[in-house]
Write a structure and sequence with these properties.
Strand content: 15-25%
Helix content: 40-55%
Strand order of the largest sheet: 1-6-5-4-2-3
Structural class: alpha/beta
Order of helices and strands: EHEHEHHHEEEH
Number of helices: 6
Number of strands: 6
Distance between the termini: 23 Å
Oligomer: single chain
């Protein structure tokens, strides 16, 4: 797990450019994707599917904003939510596992965080976002503290999620597909 204080700040974080790069890599390696999103509200899936031809590699997306949806659609355990909360390493790990299991995708990303302006706590201030990349067998989890207002946090979270997917596919990062 990485505890990053700010997202990667280079031009590569442009969602469209990242989505194009991701699509090319998925097509080259015959990888199918899924997303499990909370605070981004479908922004990652939207960025991926904004690219023409994405149906060749994008399987499905889950927007599980409420804890009940995380449990029902992705199989996140009630015990995990009660013990660790929705914004936690354990929850995003279970989210990506459930999304890949349900969709049959090779690789997924999950995102859960506090976008603000309210909802933060001393342990999880506004801008705290957890990510997991992987599948049912392997996951890589990171926590980021993203600066800015609600829109900026959400946009940065989409970029971090896409960047991690690109790394998982192109660089064989932990949490990448294992067939």
């Amino acid at each position: 797990m990485t505890n990053a204080s700010i997202p990667r700040q280079d031009a590569e974080l442009d969602a469209e450019a990242l989505s194009r790069r991701l699509g090319e890599a998925c097509l080259a390696q015959d990888i199918r994707l899924t997303t499990a999103e909370s605070c981004t509200g479908g922004g990652v899936a939207s960025a991926i599917t904004a690219i023409a031809g994405s149906s060749a590699y994008f399987e499905t997306g889950y927007v599980t904003y409420a804890n009940a949806a995380k449990r029902r659609l992705l199989g996140v355990s009630q015990a995990t939510l009660e013990t660790h909360g929705a914004v936690s390493e354990q929850t995003v790990r279970e989210m990506v596992i459930g999304a890949c299991r349900d969709s049959g995708a090779d690789l997924g990303v999950s995102v859960s965080g506090v976008a603000g302006p309210a909802g933060g706590s001393p342990d999880k201030p506004v801008g705290t976002v957890w990510f997991a990349w992987g599948n049912q067998h392997h996951q890589r989890v990171e926590r980021h503290h993203l600066p800015g207002d609600r829109r900026q946090v959400r946009e940065a979270a989409v970029a971090v999620a896409l960047s991690g997917l690109v790394e998982s596919v192109t660089e064989g990062r932990p949490g990448g597909p294992r067939r």
